[in-house]
Amino acid sequence: MIQFSDPAFSICKARIDEHPDFIKAIREDNHDILASPVLVPETGIATWNLYYFCPEHSVRLNWNRQSPDAHCCPVDGKMWRGEPWDGAWWRGLNGLNAKACYQLGLLWQLTGEKEYYDKVRQILLGYAKFYPGYEVHGGIPCNGPGKANAQTLCEANCHLDFALGYDLIRDALSAEERHYIEQRLLREGADFLIAHRARQLHNHEVKISATVGVIGLILEDTDYLEFAVNSEYGLRYQLEHGLLDEGLWFEGSVHYHFYALQGFCAFEKLARGTRWSLLPLPGYHKMLDFPLDLLLPDGTFPPINDCITGQQALTHSHIYEFFYGEYGTTRYGDVLNTIYLSQPRTSLDALLYGANKLPGDSRALVPCETLHAPGAGLTVFRKPDGDQTILLKHSPFGGEHDHHDRLGIMLFNQGHHWLPDLGTTGYGAPAHYQYYKNSATHNTLSIGRTNQPPAVPEVIYWEQNPGYCWLQTKVDWSGALPQLDSHYPPAENTEIWQDVVFRRSILWLPDMAVDVVEVENPHQQALDFTLHVDGNLAECLPGKASEWPNHGVDAYFHSVTCRQLNGVMPLSFHHENKKLPLWIATGQEACLFTALAPANPATRDISYLVVRSNQACFHLVTLYDLSTRDAVSLANVDWQPDSAILHIDMEGERRIITLPWKKGIPLFSD
Prior knowledge:
This protein is of the alpha+beta class. It has helices at about 5-20, 20-30, 30-35, 85-110, 115-130, 150-170, 175-195, 205-220, 220-230, 235-240, 255-270, 285-295, 315-325, 330-340, 350-355, 430-435; strands at about 70, 80, 370-375, 380, 390-395, 410-415, 415-420, 445, 460-465, 470-475, 500-510, 510-520, 525-535, 535, 545, 560-575, 580-600, 605-615, 615-625, 630-640, 645-650, 655-660, 665-670. It is built from 16 helices and 23 strands.
């Protein structure tokens, strides 16, 4: 095998001897394969794993090896039958078979037990028998087709594990079996991936190239390796062109940032020490470092853009074990120490690739200083001595996995996500496109309930000093839409956004934050400014039940009320024993709608505030009291053509703050 030298694998075996539960854990993880006869689909029946979600609750269904045609929702036990779930069940089986090839092949190398070898051999020979005859099929949005599965990415993920498993048992196979598997499975797979790798920057193309590269290393095929590493849109191109300035993957999702890095890592595990390795390049360090700067006070990553619930957790030991072992960077060891506070260090990558020791005195991982990253388009306001955090998203459009929420915000305080980013659900679930990706379900602007077209925001002004932070940003839809070297669905409803300019500024002060919004709406479209709050709204000015559309994103909203808004309106939200007081103010006639709509997962609701206006120039100010002791209130706002003058009561004293609509600095007076 080429994955490990003899001395390196001897170290792995010694570590396994120190952790006998490791074998048991891998067996349990492959229980469905070990406990059942090998089942390989005879046709390309598998579709997409992200169809395997309940359409009512937007949660993943319970996959059952013995139930290929009935699929259980974990929330209410309802069985879903037929497509798309049946095809997704077979995709799940393909994934388990492929994983077993790698993990059981590894167990065979570690234990010599023939049971593991036999399973891997049967699976590989089974797929080699049928793979050339699988029909090409697909239809997944923004994805190339597959053969065993319905998208090129899934094909790459399975073939990576097929190749690794083959490498682990190759020496025990007959010459005829080796030729059969190499020609009918590995080369067939690599050639298919080469034919269908798209000409774009994308996490998929990283994964596809990594798999072709791994097959090239195992089969000693330099043509595969040249394509994987050095061709246009290969691994080198992706690493050198796919990162924003500070190191965030261009798609703008922390989940897909790590997903792309996972593809690079899979290749480097075999390529390190060869001329094909990219480890000397600076890109990996940037990718490893920057997400850590984004960590929220609860130790999770912000679930911006496409991030399915759970993917925001810091669980990336498989990446940081390898790179800490390679680079020895203390911060990566701190990541691992943090992960292992809640689990033992017995992961597969720790045992195979990890350093002998982690840093002894681990530093706190969650940052306490404000982060302004204009290239990545993210600013995270933080209090050094508390858990108060606001994130403003002013990132450039990131393509297929982006959401329609330029200048959206998140607010975390008192250990709670008050203004959350909901992330999304499985892409095959209706709510993904109908609800979670929409402008109207983010803390941002929508016009006519439509989605923001692609845009690249500007930072107008940034100031950080010991007393406050002040950020001014702008999005302008008056020009041509930005182009991106990545495939994505065409923008819709762009006409209604023509000439709209959206400015948003955040003033970050001790115990409070002020959110300042200006919208130039020259065609006087119906604009909605949305805040959704994970809390219950306490009584405020009486509202009347309101009619609400029952189609598109609005079909998810209910219990809608409406009240007039002109001046300052105090509101208070409660969650368990915590509360968030806020004041929302405008100097123009507007309607304030309150509503309920799904959280994520869609098993409960959160509260919505929607301010609606059709003014040609609309102004709105929201003040958040983050003190936890009712220390702040907004008494009045003087609306000026070039600024808003806020009269704020702070623990018995009046403070006046003048905030400019356009570029400028805040002025403070008593």
